[in-house]
Design goal:
- By secondary structure, this protein is of the alpha/beta class.
- Helix 4 links the parallel strand 3 and strand 4.
- The model has no long low-confidence stretch (mean pLDDT 95).
- The strands form 2 sheets. Strands 7-6-5-8-9 form a 5-stranded parallel sheet. A 4-stranded parallel sheet has the order 2-1-3-4, sandwiched between helices.
- The radius of gyration is 19 Å and the shape is globular.
- Helix 2 crosses helix 11 and helix 3 packs across helix 4.
- The protein starts with 15 loop residues before the first helix and ends with a helix.
- It binds phosphoric acid mono(formamide)ester.
- Phosphoric acid mono(formamide)ester binds next to helix 2.
Length: 312
């Protein structure tokens, strides 16, 4: 079985079965990246283009490595040194890349919906690598893969998402994905950083960290997005850290074996204390490794691969 659509634009738009297919396909891909020679010929002759209008370390590099490990030709376009600075539209840039032979275009853009617009105009597969505060589906998938790998399941787990939910595309993709997979999802943060009517997405809303973390199996800590902040949403960084930062005392409310996730990049000492970020419950480095496996799975599935082929 493969995926229904030619693109991956968000976890809102895909089914539980498709999420399952992606997570299952990422397992043999993880085996590949743990070999001394990390190369298989699966995507030989295919072209993958990274088109990033915003900064990235993890997502862009892991897509590039994912393509290379599968033997695709991978190219990064830095929009700051491309014809975008001469005023070229997103549609024209996308078309230009496509007529050069791109099979997959991976786009990160500050405007919500930009990948959806591009996908309508291209025959190539489009993957959303983060659009504004809307969705970051590959982050949601790698978070779910990490949770499933460590806990053996997602269904029935209690998962808290802590922090700046309002500005977080990671939170939205996690909420869509985790609720579809049967987890009990809680969101917690200052009321000024909580989207109105977020409970309509099937989550429980908390404003005290200790209450939200009571008995949870997983805490996913969000980055405070200083670049997207309007002034005045919380008094000071120090005040935020004091009331909402994840530290040893607060983590004690969770299960003793609770996992700590963070999508990165971290503001150490703000949303997460360094001892927790580097502690035994942290799976932050595993998330990054799993991001390569998830992105390999997506490149494979969106270029026509199926789960039955990977299990042969
Ligand atoms: N988590 C994440 O999207 O990180 P980057 O911004 O480094 O890609």
């Amino acid at each position: 079985m493969g995926l229904k659509n030619k693109d991956l634009l968000g976890l809102k738009d895909i089914s539980k079965e498709e999420i399952q297919i992606i997570l299952d396909t990422a397992e043999p891909m993880k085996d590949v990246i743990q070999r001394p020679i990390k190369k298989v010929p699966t995507l030989r002759g295919r072209s993958v283009i990274n088109l990033f209008y915003e900064a990235s370390t993890r997502t862009r590099t892991s897509f590039e490595l994912a393509g290379k490990y599968l033997s695709a030709d991978t190219i990064n376009i830095a929009t700051s040194t491309s014809s975008v600075v001469k005023g070229e539209t997103l549609k024209d840039t996308g078309k230009t890349i496509e007529v050069m032979g791109a099979d997959v275009v991976i786009i990160r853009h500050p405007v919500a919906g930009a990948p959806h617009m591009l996908a309508k105009h291209l025959k190539a597969a489009v993957i959303n690598a983060g659009d504004g505060a809307h969705e970051h589906p590959t982050q949601g998938l790698l978070d779910m893969f990490t949770i499933r790998e460590k806990k053996g399941r997602i269904e029935g787990l209690k998962i808290a998402i802590l922090g700046d939910v309002l500005h977080s595309r990671v939170a939205r993709s996690n909420i869509w994905g985790l609720t579809k997979m049967g987890a009990e999802v809680r969101v917690v943060g200052p009321s000024t950083l909580m989207p109105p009517e977020i409970e309509k997405l099937g989550v429980q809303v908390f404003h005290r960290v200790e209450e939200a973390l009571d008995g949870v199996d997983v805490v996913n800590v969000l980055r405070i997005q200083l670049e997207r902040q309007q002034k005045g949403l919380f008094p000071t960084i120090r005040e935020y850290a004091r009331l909402f930062g994840l530290n040893k005392e607060r983590l004690q409310a969770a299960q003793a074996d609770a996992l700590v996730l963070h999508p990165g990049p971290m503001n150490r000492g703000v949303e997460i204390s360094p001892d927790i970020a580097d502690g035994l419950q942290s799976v932050i480095n595993e998330q990054v490794t799993n991001g390569v496996a998830i992105r390999m799975a997506l490149l494979y599935l969106l270029t026509g691969g199926t789960t039955s082929e990977t299990s042969d």
